[in-house]
Design a protein that fits this description.
- The protein has ten helices and seven strands.
- The chain is an alpha/beta fold and 260 residues long.
- It has two domains: 32 residues; 222 residues, no CATH class.
- The strands form two sheets. The protein has a five-stranded mixed beta sheet with strand order 3-6-7-5-4. Strands 1-2 form a two-stranded antiparallel sheet.
- Strand 1 and strand 2 form a beta hairpin.
- Helix 5 crosses helix 7 and helix 7 packs across helix 9.
- The two termini are 35 Å apart.
Length: 260
């Protein structure tokens, strides 16, 4: 609460005036927010228009040879990402549209059930500033982007199968929902490691570790850095070491996040 002070004395009028100012500032801040963080990186239907309004045309990547959304300034990267998105779609059996959006209010990426111009299973929106941030890294930056994409496609899989309500029942934050999406990202990394032994899957764990948080008593808590990295590792093990099909991975991931 904001308060006013005359000399060294607190005044009732100052407290009331300051409190009103605080409420006004809070209301203004909330009104300017496009996204309520209690939903994690999933977007409810009422929020999607403000994001779609700043987004590029969406594309559906099934083969990787579809027309590209060229926003990185690197045609080779755009081509590789298109094929990565197609492979994530195939492994997760989902078909979301994909687009970049202007993340002026904070570097982020989101998944929504809402369909824009392409996609039958919703839309993944990737922030342009987040893209630049991840690609400025020094250790396989392109795979950092792939890790976030796999996480968001994991949310699309949750939407498609109705998993969000199932894993979040009784939860005090969005952590179970976010960690299951991390698990799915790790599962994708394990599948890619089987296909290409040189695939540096550890980058997925490091990327999600860097996005962990310590606000454990907050509704928007996504998981600590260790929890996010561990979810990636567990998903990787299910795919790479245990070589479980997606159907089994879904059951394992649901039990995994419900016990955390």
């Amino acid at each position: 609460m904001l308060t006013s002070k005359v000399g060294h004395m607190w005044t009732r009028r100052g407290v009331l005036t300051g409190g009103a100012a605080a409420l006004l500032l809070s209301a203004t801040a909330l009104a300017s927010q496009r996204h309520n963080p209690i939903y994690g990186c999933t977007l409810p239907a009422r929020e999607t228009p403000s994001f779609f309004n700043t987004a590029t045309e969406s594309r559906l990547y099934i083969t990787g040879d579809e027309p590209l959304i060229e926003k990185s300034g690197d045609p080779d990267f755009d081509y590789a990402l298109a094929h990565t998105l197609a492979r994530i779609s195939q492994i997760f059996t989902v078909e979301p549209g994909f687009a970049y959006y202007n993340d002026f209010d904070g570097n982020n990426a989101y998944a929504t059930k809402q369909v824009r111009s392409y996609g039958v299973d919703g839309t993944v929106l990737f922030g342009q500033r987040l893209l630049s941030q991840l690609r400025s890294g020094s250790d396989h930056p392109d795979l950092g982007v792939a890790s976030v994409c796999a996480h968001e496609f994991g949310h699309i899989l949750q939407y498609k199968l109705g998993l969000i309500d199932k894993v979040s029942a009784g939860a005090k934050s969005v952590k179970p929902v976010e960690l299951q999406a991390d698990f799915f990202a790790g599962y994708f990394a394990g599948k890619r490691k089987l296909e290409r032994p040189s695939f540096p899957a550890a980058v997925f764990a490091m990327t999600q570790y860097s996005m962990g948080d310590e606000i454990v008593h907050n509704l928007q808590h996504h998981g600590t850095p260790e929890e996010r990295a561990n979810a990636i590792v567990r998903g990787f093990e299910v795919a790479y070491k245990e070589q479980q099909p997606l159907s089994a991975a879904i059951d394992i991931s649901t039990s995994y996040v419900r016990t955390l």
